[in-house]
């Protein structure tokens, strides 16, 4: 009995999708399979006005083998595939753009594990992307290309991807803002239904998103200052604009983190006030019970000479004395609390 090897949503070579762009199709992408892509790569010198986009699933172990056999990608790209989590970066190696883009998975639920990495290598005629989990940004780009949106160059493809990533991040920030607004409204209404721990988890995820998604400024600055010779000026300008838009989104995320921090401090202050009130009530009860406990302890001694033991009005005298001391102790306690609240 023969079994079929798993393909993880890709073909046997690990290719999820492939598209050919050129003037003949008006800039729109023509679908390619792995065989057609291999043939085009062998004849790429005959098509200088065309470029290709290949998207691979690294969960299929055949992906790297296919890339090694049919492409001449820089070693830096293969090295980046086996690195640990790093922030988003875009750098130049052997006149080829190498990009490591962190993005969120489709069913993002504010969990740190919902962030995955997309690797790209881009030159004038080839754009190759690879991932291990389905990501929002690259699938949005894939749907746009499938819908017939024209792409002028391989760099515009990369720029489109960065903008799709920024759009996904904007939606996450909007959802987080909605959650924070609801918590603030409940807090102002006196309904403390959210714990600091849940806000802390949201804040930690936002910090992780900002740390991983923020582009490395040094590498990006060097690239924009000295772009590769094959990159057009309009592509350089659009890439610069997309990074500026991304920076604005990250700034909004930073301000949201400050809001969450202030709400956490307010919740901690309210919890502290509630604890102080409980301790005050417990202290008052203890103070009010102190006179009767002391007098009852003294009067309950089995020794001679207990006062008022032979008086017919002894019980009432003791009750009046205890009540007087209790009233005085309560008045002093509430007076001290009132003076502290006024200060």
TrEMBL record:
The keyword Transmembrane helix applies. This is Magnesium transporter CorA. The chain crosses the membrane at residues 279-301, 313-334. Belongs to the CorA metal ion transporter (MIT) (TC 1.A.35) family. It comes from the Bacteria. It is a multi-pass membrane protein. It is found in: Cell membrane. InterPro entries: CorA_cytoplasmic_dom, CorA_TM1_TM2, MgTranspt_CorA/ZnTranspt_ZntB. Keywords: Cell inner membrane, Cell membrane, Ion transport, Membrane, Transmembrane, Transmembrane helix, Transport, Zinc. It comes from Duganella lactea. The keyword Membrane applies. Pfam families: CorA.
């Amino acid at each position: 009995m023969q079994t079929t090897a798993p393909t993880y949503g890709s073909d046997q070579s690990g290719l999820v999708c492939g598209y050919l762009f050129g003037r003949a199709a008006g800039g729109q992408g023509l679908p390619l399979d792995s065989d057609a892509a291999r043939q085009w790569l062998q004849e790429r010198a005959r098509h200088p006005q065309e470029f290709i986009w290949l998207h691979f699933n690294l969960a299929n172990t055949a992906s790297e083998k296919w890339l090694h056999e049919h492409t001449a990608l820089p070693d830096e790209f293969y090295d980046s595939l086996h690195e640990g989590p790093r922030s988003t970066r875009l750098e130049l190696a052997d006149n080829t753009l190498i990009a490591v883009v962190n993005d969120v998975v489709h069913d993002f639920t504010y969990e740190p594990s919902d962030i995955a990495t997309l690797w790209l290598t881009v030159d004038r005629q080839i754009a190759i992307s690879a991932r291990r989990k389905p990501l929002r940004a690259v699938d949005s780009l894939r749907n746009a290309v499938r819908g017939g949106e024209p792409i002028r160059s391989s760099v515009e493809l990369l720029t489109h991807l960065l903008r799709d990533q920024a759009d996904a991040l904007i939606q996450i920030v909007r959802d987080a803002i909605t959650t924070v607004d609801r918590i603030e409204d409940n807090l102002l209404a006196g309904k403390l239904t959210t714990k600091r721990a849940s806000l802390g988890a949201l804040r930690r995820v936002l910090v992780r998103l900002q740390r991983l998604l923020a582009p490395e400024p040094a590498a990006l600055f060097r690239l924009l200052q000295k772009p590769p010779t094959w990159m057009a000026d309009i592509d350089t300008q659009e890439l610069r604009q997309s990074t500026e838009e991304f920076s604005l989104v990250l700034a909004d995320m930073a301000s949201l983190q400050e809001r969450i921090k202030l709400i956490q401090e307010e919740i901690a202050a309210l919890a502290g006030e509630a604890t102080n009130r409980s301790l005050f009530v417990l202290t008052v009860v203890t103070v009010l019970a102190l006179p009767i406990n002391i007098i009852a302890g003294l009067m309950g001694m089995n020794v001679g000479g207990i006062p008022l033991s032979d008086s017919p009005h002894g019980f009432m005298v003791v009750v009046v004395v205890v009540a007087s001391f209790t009233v005085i102790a309560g008045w002093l306690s509430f007076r001290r609390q009132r003076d502290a609240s006024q200060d």
